[in-house]
Every structure is written in structure tokens, then in C-alpha cells.
Specification:
Number of helices: 1
Helix content: under 10%
Shape: globular
Number of strands: 35
Radius of gyration: 23 Å
Structural class: mainly beta
Largest sheet: 12 strands, mixed
Mean pLDDT: 81
Low-confidence stretches: 225-239, 418-427
Length: 432
């Protein structure tokens, strides 16, 4: 699935009030749902709003499920009355996938997550005014950065953790507007790593089986051992060497976007499209002089012209496709190589929602920042003095990540499924 709205204020999916199928909170029903199973690949949805109208107490905003690569981005989910959850991820087996820049207002739970496999990644998620908990998490592995939780009182925790799961929580703010006794995070048997997490309005930050184990912000690694309560380990004490790298976390540059058709050129078809074979059309689109290149959905085969080598000009800022495939003509053809023109003063070059065949290679030969978002990666090779690289919701497929140790930029990996990685070789510090 690849669904893109026109924005949270323009594309609104609303469940009608008192809808008959959404009346039983004990047997909730999702208003929107993705494919099930562990082959629910490439489930992409972004730029829209879901509103659950009054009188639907058994409603879930979206039952989201994706594997290996998938993302829910720039989405608002709101309940006008009682409802079960904004996002449910309880079917087998959620993840790896990414939820980013999503806000949830109301519901019993903002999110409900379960299953021990495979793990979800959340960044810049906002939760507000839930009735029972911001996130109800059981046994899964969550990596969270930039969580903002604002609850009406501290009897509603930002995170309620149960089962034998693992959670990493970074750079987050957990707030209760009315102070009553209660922790910001409750845990029964979770492994927890937290850094730069602040609470306001709660009695304390973290409770494990009702016992206070973290009063305030600190870098803690809490690993319960059996049924024995253990104190948190302050990772800054240097006692056991389990210090984090503490690397700077940079924000992934947002893709350039234009609503002006004259800024776009299409490889394939449409009102602004390049004629000829896909090979010629691809080269013409790059050289056309427009900042946005759209690769038509489906299979796009690139032939032997240009010696299989293409230079992406500095005026190109976005190469995007609705999960489009970039292939060669046969498995036996030479490698198709992409080079990037420009330098660090140019806007970032962003690849968004593309699938590259394993014979494709990207050579990062300039100081320009490069970003891959929701892509099946080509093989990546950096050269000395190459620029910054951001990988977000990417899958290496048959490719490899070869990073020259002389590169001057930095490498950020976010939602990069290690289980499918063929080779990762880097001389720079990295912090997945």
C-alpha cells in the first residue's frame, strides 16, 4: 500500500457518529487497517487525518502493521468521544517499521503495541489526553525518540509497560497537567534504556512493580533480573563501561516539496513527462532543470545508454516514486551507477519511496548531504570528503553499505533492519 493525502488539514477520513460496527469496546474494530502477517511489506501512509466521531466506543483509528519497511508519517488521529486506541499494533508480527510526526488526541490509549517480534520505531510522536495510558506496550521492542506526552493528570502514565519487552526512550517530555500521585512510566518486567527524558506533574519518572527506581531525568539502564528488583545503573558513572556514545542526533532533512507542477518532471507518464525509453527519459528528467523528479509507479528498466552511469545534477532536490522500482534489463547487465553533483552548500538530495535493484550503485562523491527515505537501498559507496548520509526506513536488500573512513560527514541510521543487512562497513561513528 502507498497512500498519500494532501496534508493533515486537507485530507480527512472521518468515521460517522454512532456507526453500528464500532459499538463494542471489548471487541474493537479498526476504521483503517493494513495487511496482516509477516509479509506485510511496504505499507506507506502519510499526510492525512483520521477523526473518530462521537458514539463509537469500540473504534480504533488505524490498525497499522508493516514488516521490514513501512512508515506512517505526518498523520493526525483524534477521537471526539470515547474510543479504544488511536493506533493498534497487536497483530503478529509488527515491524520493523517507522511511525514519525504522528499526533494522537483522546482514546483510552494513544497506542497499543504487543507481540515479541519484530520491533517498531517511533520519532516525534505526540500523545494528548488519553484516558488510561499514552502507550500501552507489551513484550515488543520499541525505539522511541522525541516523544511528547501531555495527559490531564498523573494517574494516566505516558507509558505503561508489561511483559518481557525492551524500550529505548530518548529526548522525550512526559507531562501531566494536574498533579496526582503516579509515575510517568510504569513497568512490570521491562528492559529500559532512557536518556534525556523529562517529566513534569508526575510524582517521579519510573516505577517498576510499584517501586520507584528513577526519580528524575538521568541516563539509566534498568535490567530486571528474574523477580529481584535491582537499582538502575547510571551509565555516566563509568563503573561498568556501559556508557552510551552520546553522539549528536541530527534531524533527518525534510524532503523538498512543491505544489507547483512546473517544479516537477515525470519519468514515465503524466502532463510533465519525458518521452522515449525509460533509459532516455531518466537521463532527460535529471537534466531537465526541475528540482523534483517523479519516477512512475511500477517497473522502470534502465538500459545501457550513458555507459550505465548517471550524474544527479545539483538542481535536483528530490527523486521520488510511489514505491516505484528501478531495475536494469537483466541480471547479467553491468552495474548502474549514480553520482551526485554539488557540495555542502547545496540543499540535500533526497530519495523517497524507491526500490533499487541490487545491481544499482550510489557513489557519494561530493560533500552534499544525501538522504534515503523509505527506499530499498542501492549499494552505497562513499569517497573521501563525502558529505552527511541519512538512512530512514530503508532496507538494504541485496546491496551493501560501504562507508569510506575518510568521509568527513556523519552517518545516521534510523529504522534500518539489521536482519536483512548484507554488509555494513563504516569508519565513522554511528548510533543506530
Amino acid at each position: 500500500m502507498s497512500f498519500r493525502g494532501a496534508g493533515v488539514d486537507k485530507t480527512i477520513l472521518r468515521l460517522a457518529s454512532n456507526s453500528p460496527a464500532f459499538q463494542n469496546a471489548s471487541n474493537p474494530v479498526a476504521f483503517v487497517s493494513t495487511k496482516r502477517g509477516n509479509r506485510s511489506f511496504r505499507q506507506f501512509a502519510r499526510d492525512f487525518t483520521i477523526i473518530i466521531s462521537n458514539g463509537n466506543p469500540g473504534a480504533i483509528g488505524i490498525d497499522y502493521h508493516a514488516n521490514n519497511r513501512g512508515s506512517l508519517r505526518d498523520v493526525r488521529i483524534a477521537a471526539e468521544g470515547n474510543a479504544v486506541a488511536g493506533i493498534s499494533m497487536q497483530r503478529r508480527w509488527p515491524g520493523p517499521a517507522l511511525i514519525k510526526r504522528v499526533s494522537i488526541e483522546g482514546f483510552d490509549y494513544g497506542m497499543v503495541v504487543s507481540q515479541s517480534e519484530y520491533g517498531m520505531v517511533l520519532e516525534h510522536v505526540s500523545l494528548r489526553n488519553q484516558r488510561l495510558a499514552g502507550i500501552n506496550h507489551n513484550s515488543n521492542m520499541l525505539s522511541i525518540r522525541g516523544l511528547t506526552s501531555i495527559q490531564q493528570d498523573s494517574s494516566v502514565p505516558a507509558l505503561s509497560l508489561s511483559g518481557n519487552g525492551f524500550i529505548t526512550l530518548l529526548d522525550s517530555s512526559l507531562k501531566a497537567t494536574a498533579a496526582t500521585p503516579g509515575p510517568a512510566i510504569t513497568s512490570s518486567n521491562h528492559n529500559i534504556y532512557a536518556r534525556n527524558v523529562y517529566q513534569q506533574g508526575y510524582s517521579y519518572l519510573l516505577a517498576w512493580n510499584g517501586t520507584t527506581v528513577a526519580q528524575a531525568d538521568q541516563e539509566v539502564y534498568f535490567y530486571p533480573t528474574g523477580d529481584t528488583k535491582s537499582a538502575p545503573v547510571n551509565l555516566h558513572n563509568g563503573g561498568d563501561g556501559r556508557l552510551s556514545l552520546g553522539l549528536r542526533i541530527a534531524e533527518t532533512p525534510l524532503p523538498f516539496w512543491s505544489n507547483n507542477p512546473s517544479d516537477w518532471i515525470s519519468v514515465g507518464y503524466g502532463p510533465n513527462w519525458c518521452f522515449g525509453s525509460t533509459t532516455k527519459a531518466f537521463k532527460r528528467a535529471l537534466d531537465w532543470g526541475r528540482p523534483c523528479v517523479y519516477v512512475a509507479a511500477g517497473l522502470n528498466r534502465i538500459g545501457p545508454e550513458n555507459n550505465y552511469t548517471y550524474v544527479i545534477p545539483r538542481h535536483v532536490r528530490l527523486i521520488a516514486g510511489a514505491d516505484a522500482h528501478l531495475n536494469d534489463f537483466s541480471p547479467s547487465v553491468p552495474t548502474v551507477t549514480l553520482y551526485v553533483a554539488g557540495d555542502a552548500s547545496d540543499p540535500p538530495l533526497v530519495f523517497d519511496s524507491l526500490n533499487f535493484r541490487s545491481s544499482w550503485k550510489f557513489v557519494h562523491n561530493s560533500t552534499r548531504t544525501v538522504v534515503f527515505i523509505s527506499c530499498n537501498m542501492p549499494s552505497y559507496y562513499s569517497q573521501p570528503n563525502s558529505g552527511n548520509l541519512f538512512l530512514e526506513d530503508v532496507q538494504p536488500g541485496e546491496g551493501r553499505l560501504n562507508d569510506d573512513p575518510a568521509g568527513v560527514g556523519a552517518l545516521w541510521l534510523f529504522e534500518y533492519p539489521q536482519s536483512t543487512q548484507k554488509q555494513r562497513k563504516t569508519g565513522r561513528q554511528s548510533q543506530p
